[in-house]
Amino acid sequence: MGGGGSTRRVTFEADENENITVVKGVRLSDSVIDRMKEPSSPGRQHRGAGAVNDEELKKRIAEELALERARRDSEAQKRRLFGKLLERERISSNEHLTRAILRERAATEEERQKAQRFARQLEEKERELKKHDAYYKEQLARLEERSAQFYKVTTEQYQKAADEVSARFK
């Protein structure tokens, strides 16, 4: 992260207006170039008209490159951390969703079993009601038969008694 020295060699030149030109394929931002143009101290040394102190420029460029690398590394680390955070959140959401689905499946299975149990109980009650219905129909038929016999016997006795009374008072 910028702690070690760079092995890349950068050569640069300053033109007559102190514009910095990078010779070997490294791009510098305008702010870096502006800072390199600024004098770092009031007693800045010039080698000639418009010449720039090479050592100071190299030092500034190295510092700016190190800062830029550190900024990029920091941004990359933030992206990685954010990616990890998003991945953890996704995993957590998936686990939560999976648990909810499993709970829902268990509840659905429990409801299905309850429905089956109630269906069996209902069928059993219907069989029981049919048995009772048949039993009471049989009892009703017996009572009707007894009632018919009782009516027949009573009618015969009445007729017999009526005939006797009629024969007696004739």
UniProtKB/TrEMBL annotation:
Keywords recorded for this protein, A-Z: Coiled coil, Disulfide bond, Lipoprotein, Membrane, Mitochondrion, Mitochondrion inner membrane, Myristate
This protein's encoding gene: Chchd3
Topology versus the membrane: Lipid-anchor
Protein name: MIC19 protein
BP GO terms, sorted: inner mitochondrial membrane organization
GO cellular component assignments: MICOS complex
Organism of this sequence: Vireo altiloquus
Record's subcellular location: Mitochondrion inner membrane
Residue segments, region Disordered: 35-55
Main location class: mitochondrion
Coiled coil: 105-142
